[in-house]
Amino acid sequence: MSLQCGLVGLPNVGKSTIFNALSSAGAEADNYPFCTVDPNVGVVPVPDERLPRVAELAGSPETVPTSIEFVDIAGLVEGAAEGEGLGNQFLAQIREVDAIIHVVRCFEDDEVAHVAGSVDPVRDVEVIDTELLLKDLETVEKRVEKVSTAAKKGDKEAVRQLEVFERLHDHLSDGEWARSFEVSEPARPLVDELFLLTDKPVLYVANVGEEALPDGNAYVDRLRAIAQDEGTRVVSISADLEAQITELAPAERQLFLDDAGLQRSGLERLIHAAYDVLDLITFFTADEKGAYAWTVEEGTQAPQAAGEVHSDFEEGFIKAETIHFSDFDEADSEAAAREAGLIRTEGKDYVVEDGDVMEFRFNV
Question: Which of 24, 173, 273, 311 lies most in the core, judged by the most C-beta atoms within 10 Å?
């Protein structure tokens, strides 16, 4: 799956520093607004400690992790929906991503200017939310105007659509995001085709000083309250610390984290949190060339999962030999797993679970 998460926020909140640490793509991280004009895209491998074990058990010589794309989108400012600070261009870039990672400044530093002159996570979130809502209102208003013309001429389908779009407009006008808009399943495509900014899942990243790790600070507490109301979560990261970690050799990184009192890097926690927000799971395959991790949405059935490996696998799907990673790990070998009857045969209706190790049978 090609999945993108867009890093958004006000200028100078640490987006580009976090992006650089994620992807080592070299985006500028200067201390002034709009230093990132074109979106920077980094393809980031998803850390998964299960994959090397799958390779070991299957006798595969190498591992190929699944990945996720992060897009560094330039800082938005108040008035972006009207074009301030190249706002229309940046908002269009947000429209292309699958999820929004909202980076919020939760640290004090006199040497790093804040576009509003002070640190206030609640205000900063409201600025971004308002701009996204205003842009969505503009989109819906254009659709209402278009459909109204047909509805006035007696077009029954247009009348049905107009009712949906007018309710959606009222919903957004009340400050509610599109993702909380209730609509019948038959009418859902009408909303989906608008690609509304506020219809996307959101994950908050609190950029904190190193001293605020791992528990956060008062600013993070205020951000957590917002996230709780929205049914999402907050990942606390020190962008400067993560930048230091990426400069270390892999063998030194865990020692550095241990000294800092951290079990995992903030970037690793961010990647896994993004998976949770997007309702994604990982399954594995292995052969004589390598062990592979694959990404699918939760609820995906076996043939569609097979299609992630190769389109021929989905078209000619017969069955899938399946074992969960925990059973495979405990059995300690494929032979032992087979002898214990742990490898199951699953058909077209099987819903893939996170951690499944699968071998697909198909007709060519």
Answer: 273
